[in-house]
Structure formats: C-alpha cells, structure tokens
Amino acid sequence: MRLDKFLKVSRLIKRRAVAKEVGDRGWISLNGRAAKPGDRIKVGDRLEMTFGPRHLVVEVLEIREAVPAKEASNLYRVVSETFDRAAEV
After folding, report:
1. Distance CA 64, CA 18 (A)
2. Could you tell me the pTM of the whole model?
C-alpha cells in the first residue's frame, strides 16, 4: 500500500492530499530514510513524522484497504511521541 493512502486509512492524517504534501515536504521518514508519498509500506515498517513541535514514531502492524474509524488505531502502534515546546515558538 502507498504511504499516503496508509496515513489516510489509519487516520494518522485525515486527508490523502495532506498526506501527500507532508511526504513531499520531507516530514516523514520510512525505516530511517526520507519517504515519498508513493513509497510502498509493509507490516513492520517504522514511520517517523514531524509536525511542528510534535514528533511521532509508529510501527505498522496491519495493512487494510478500508477500516472503520473505531478500528483505525489497530493498524499501527505508537512507539514514541514527543512534543518539543521550544520548536513551538
């Protein structure tokens, strides 16, 4: 599955167009390297996302094409989440 589609299906990012833009800007890395929106992801991959002061690391647990909102968080596991107040300014 494409990275941008996974971000939308898992509801880590609400819209696929936004997920594509985030990938184009280099705010996401896949297994330690810069990720593009069209990169293929698989179970066990590690995604690192930086959105302003927030840094989120998740591990892909499952890949499905369509998921009800209540089950979206079952597709990934949060490895770490940090919030840097110094970057907020």
Report:
1. 20
2. 0.85
